[in-house]
Amino acid sequence: MDNPRSSMISTSTSLLDLDASLSAPMDLTTLLKILAGKNMVGGRDVVRVLNCSAFHDTHLVCSGDLSYLGGSWSKTVGSAGEVPLQGDFSAEHMIFGVEGADPVRREKLIQLLDIDLEWRMHKVSDGQRRRVQICMGLLHPFKVLLLDEVTVDLDVVARMDLLDFFKEECEQRGATIVYATHIFDGLETWATDLAYIQDGELKRTDKLSELPELQKSSNLLSVVESWLRSETKIDKKRPITQAQIQKTSPFDTSPFRSSRHMAYYR
User: Fold this and answer.
1) By residue range, what is the domain housing residue 149?
2) pLDDT for residue 145 is more than 80
3) Is residue 178 part of a domain?
């Protein structure tokens, strides 16, 4: 996550399908990967999902009952850092390459995410690449879905349509979705439970409908902002005054300051 210090988890339906006993502080991405069975901690009974060991009972993931969707398709390339995975193949090749997918569900997701099957994956934008990634990750029905900031590259319309799809999955199929996010627009009517994690520690968990602060505020974003400002003791920034602008910068006397006497080499 961008800020592992403070993170929020929104859930649709309940957390009764998850059971974890972890004491070490960790960022939210690591926590979700542990719940998804990607990282092992302790013994078989430390992290259990659907009454099974998240890491040891591999049938959870193989059957599609437990699904994780997060991160981005990227790789580290030398000094260039994280570079999106690219290949000269179509979105159709990627999506239809997932075996055992229900054709009706596949078509629904393609329409929902507004995917052009002729997109070439080495030419698409980050948002278009993310749409294909989400579509592939949702092709198989799940019982528990763990989401790590998956809507960050989506526009407003695509994001709200996807949240509606998630809500439908929970209401019609009884699925549980855990969504870790820093984007709170539209979550007031989507999530059923809210968990607030600070420094790897669960600070509070509430039913969204019973959250007292939300009764007094117009949206969830304002509530979360007040929590974060209270935690970090950071007040809203005041307008910069003329006196502050005229203050001498420490770089004015720095030996590394740009100078016309410096020599430049190509």
Assistant:
1) 6-74+133-247
2) yes
3) yes
